[in-house]
Amino acid sequence: MLTTISNLKDHVGKEVTIRGWMFNKRGNGKLYFLQLRDGSGMTQGVLEAAKVDPQTAENAEKLTAESSVKVTGIVNKHPKQEGVYELGVTKIEIVHLTTEEYPISKKDHGIDFLLDQRHLWLRSSKQWAIQRVRNTIINATYEYLNDNGFIKIDAPILTPNACEGTTELFDIDYFDEGKAYLSQSGQLYIEAAIFSVGKCFDFGPVFRAEKSKTRRHLTEFWMMDAEAAFAEHDDNIKTQEELVCHIVKKVLEKNMQELTILERNIEPLKKIEAPFIRKTHEEVVKELREMGSDIQPNHDLGADDETMLTQKYDKPIFVEKYPSEVKAFYMKRDPKDPTRVLCADLLAPEGYGEIIGGSQREDDYDTLLKRIQDHKLPVKEFQWYLDLRKFGSVPHSGFGYGLERLVTWICGQEHIRTSIPFPRTIYRLTP
Ligand code: 4AD
Ligand code: MG
Predict the structure, then answer these.
(1) In what order do the strands lie in the sheet with 317-320?
(2) 403 FRET partner, CA 20 to 30 A, in 73, 232, 246, 349?
(3) pLDDT number for residue 120
């Protein structure tokens, strides 16, 4: 019977066939231990040459790392390890025999070599585990948003204007229209869509021509922007809290095997529950200065500030109400202190830093027009966005998460580059 490694538990004592790849082999002419993977999991096949047909014994002998195979065997429960199942191999069919030496061996490779081999490196167990967690995060996001009335609205990638600041835009020549830009966030477009569907989200690749070389920056990454009509700053925070809790819960439910492979300490993840910590930018600046940072009252938090602050806490932290001059043009001023905006960045604990940026949006036509002018943005290209404040304007808020930032944090990775299948950074465009 054909099955997958993840389903071996349902076939103990029975003969099954799995299809996949052999990634390691130990043994001599008599007894072989084959490490097998099929995408759903990993298992060991034990083969005794005397007990199988001559062709299978020959196949076992000549099998090389990363050859593809169909392996038939009897499922055995591991005598000591709980939840581990092995195959007592009865038959091996080789689908493709790898004849070249596989470039990724067990010895320590440098990160640049591994990234050059990303198309092959993705097969390694830790990389496999990260992609599986990423998949859970994506699905948990859809699940939470769909269950809470958010409709998926796809925002365009080619846009005539900037969403997040003009210094980080990738531009291309767009026929007779002049310059087009690769989207930095679908936010402005899903703001338009809330006037149709009430609550919505987008989820897709976005681009930042950032010259940053930090462990947190990619030039192409996946963002989920969510937006809701009539939602104010506090409602926005509540949605983010619930979404992040739901995501972490789902990963803990579905990916214990992957987290174990990644050697992720899950204790901090188990503590992720609402309410998260909330601090104003003013409070955080004071706290950081006491910790030795030279951050100024009207500064954005630097990467080191985020690391220092979030290492102190075991829960995510909302940093609210930044000075307006360090934030985007569309954020609404705090009526209690117009030098600040009704925004919050959500910082992940354990030194990870920003995973979400969000705010209440400016909903008054004249104020928004002034903001656009103050930021020296082309009013003409933003006229459609201004129109939204002309026809039934409402208070509204939203936020955007960086998928790879979440993956990096939840998987406990050092650097963001392994959280996306094929990373794009200033120095890397291939494979
Ligand atoms: O904070 P950002 O720039 O916010 C926006 O783009 C808003 N328009 C979102 C919204 O309100 N709908 O980006 C949102 C998130 C950040 O919090 C971070 O997690 C991630 O996107 N991010 C990056 N991830 C990887 N590489 C980069 N260069 C990133 N820049 C932002
Ligand atoms: Mg931000």
Answers:
(1) 151-152, 199-207, 220-229, 396-402, 353-360, 343-348, 317-320, 277-280
(2) 232
(3) 98
- Both tokens of 431, joined, read 């494979």
Model pTM score: 0.97
Span from the CA of 356 to the centroid of ligand 2 (angstroms) = 7
Q: What is the distance between the alpha carbons of residues 137 and 114, in angstroms, rounded to a whole number?
A: 25
Domains of the chain with CATH codes: 5-96 (2.40.50.140), 119-419 (3.30.930.10)
Task: Name the residue type at position 310.
Answer: T
DSSP H or E run through 194:
helix 187-197
Query: Alpha-carbon distance 309 to 332, whole Å?
Result: 26
By three-state DSSP, how is residue 254 classified?
Answer: helix
Which ligand 1 atom lies nearest to the CA of residue 346? 17
Which segments in the chain show pLDDT lower than 50?
none
- How far apart CA 324 and CA 362 sit, in angstroms, is 12
- DSSP H stretches of helix in 95-150: 111-116, 118-121, 125-147
Is 162 touching ligand 1 by the criterion CB < 6 Å?
no
pLDDT at position 105: 87
Closest atom of ligand 1 relative to the 225 alpha carbon = 12
- Whether residue 217 has its Cβ less than 6 Å from ligand 1: yes
